[in-house]
Amino acid sequence: MTDFIGQCGGYAVIDGGLATELERHGANLNDPLWSAKCLVTSPQLIRRVTQLSPSHIFTLVHLDYLEAGANIIISSSYQATLQGFEAKGLSRVEGEALLRKSVEIACEAREIYYSRDAKVFSDVIENRENLKQHPVFVGASVGSYGAYLADGSEYSGIYGDAVTLETLKDFHRRRVQVLAESGADLIAFETIPNKLEAKAYAELLQEEDIKIPAWFSFNSKDGTNVVSGDSISECASIADSCKQVVAVGINCTPPRFIHGLIQAIREVTAKPILIYPNSGETYDADRKEWVQSTGVVDEDFVSYVGKWCEAGASLIGGCCRTTPNTIRAISKALSSRSSSVTTLEF
Ligand SMILES: C[S+](C)CC[C@H](N)C(=O)O
Ligand SMILES: N[C@@H](CCS)C(=O)O
Ligand SMILES: [Zn+2]
Q1: CB 86 within 8 A of CB 132
Q2: What is the DSSP letter of 345?
Q3: Ligand 2: which residue has its CA nearest to atom 6?
């Protein structure tokens, strides 16, 4: 991850809200599968389908984020679980295929992005040796058990005593195995709401000898602890102790809480720190809608970026309710701090 960040110029840009963009393009995510519903019903909403007629051009979310400057795009598997698919009547084999599909869509978007960029560059630049293009990783999203519950539990982290370490490991095991073999560059464990789930992920990575790296990203609603009330230091320490974890951080958390959380994480790990906050709005899990009043506009969001870098973050993006515009602005803010770009071999 450190090499990748170096290739990105010292700071890597993570994409923005995926579900947010699907909704903006008309998807109704009021479903237990939330954004993963589109994997079952309309993958074309997530993958750009470029045909000759402009009326057939669908907005493709991954590609929009790449064009906005993202170095890491995160697959649509956040709420894609084998158990959730089975509840919809899909077989285990079909569910595993959909998990792979979520990563394949992101990898295809990266290919389209590279080939388009190559075409644009080759039209204007004769010497291909000089072509510069930003590197891109695909992260396979793993949302928490609370995300699968589809009741906003990833913002409480309270699962009850019946849910043990073994419950969580068994819940995630096959999904993690499938995603690890999907062609993704890393597994993005996102919106981790408590210490128990972090421990379950760390043990799974080791027990299953997962061959691709992972990041652990927690969420907070007070700037001091993760949402369950567990200490961010303890959570980040679990990530620090796991050899497959190559970055640790915070996502889907209001921007105003991020600075202190970066400082707390830096005290317990030397691994790269990632942050991709949400807009600061609140999620109404019953209505499956965001309450707009508490959010910040892109300008305010981006005004934090310099301070987050100074506190130690080196991977920065956005989560729910952020858009390609947010990511474009982050990319611009980071490029003024970056030291280099890579040369791409076509
Ligand atoms: C990150 S939250 C907005 C995802 C959606 C939630 N798990 C739900 O199903 O309501
Ligand atoms: N990768 C997910 C995170 C939800 S918290 C998304 O952007 O929809
Ligand atoms: Zn989010």
Answers
A1: no
A2: P
A3: 18
Alpha carbon 175 to its chain's center: 16
Q: Output the furthest CA–CA distance in the chain (Å, rounded).
A: 64
290 lines ligand 1 (CB under 6 A): no
Determine whether the annotation assigns residue 309 to a binding site.
no
Asked if residue 14 has its Cβ within 6 Å of ligand 2, the reply is: no
pTM of the model: 0.91
Establish whether residue 283 lines the binding site of ligand 1, counting it when its CB lies within 6 angstroms of any ligand atom: yes
Rounded CA-CA distance 254/322 in Å is 11
Residues 245 and 188: their CA atoms lie apart, in Å, by 10
Q: What would the pLDDT profile of 17-31 be if each residue is shown by its tens digit?
A: 999 998 888 878 899
d(CA 307, CA 274): 14
CA atoms 99, 100, 104, 107: torsion sign = positive
CA distance 225 to 221: 8
Ligand nearest to the CA of 147: 1
| Cβ 316 vs Cβ 274: under 8 Å | yes
More confident residue, 57 or 202: 202
Residues 303-328: pLDDT tens digits?
999 999 999 999 999 999 999 999 99
Question: Could you give the domains of the chain?
Answer: 2-335 (3.20.20.330)
Mean residue pLDDT of the chain comes to 89
200 pLDDT above the threshold of 80: yes
Instruction: Tell me if 24 sits within 8 A of 320, measured CB to CB.
Output: no
User: Does residue 38 have a known ligand-binding role?
Assistant: no
DSSP state of 319: -
What tens digit of pLDDT does each residue of 88-138 get? Answer: 999 999 999 999 999 999 998 899 899 877 666 566 555 554 455 789 999
Backbone angles phi, psi at 298, to 5 degrees: -55, -40
Q: Is the CB of 18 under 6 A from ligand 2?
A: yes
Give the distance (Å) from ligand 2 centre to CA of residue 78: 6
ipTM (interface pTM): 0.99
Residue 56 in tokens:
């057939």
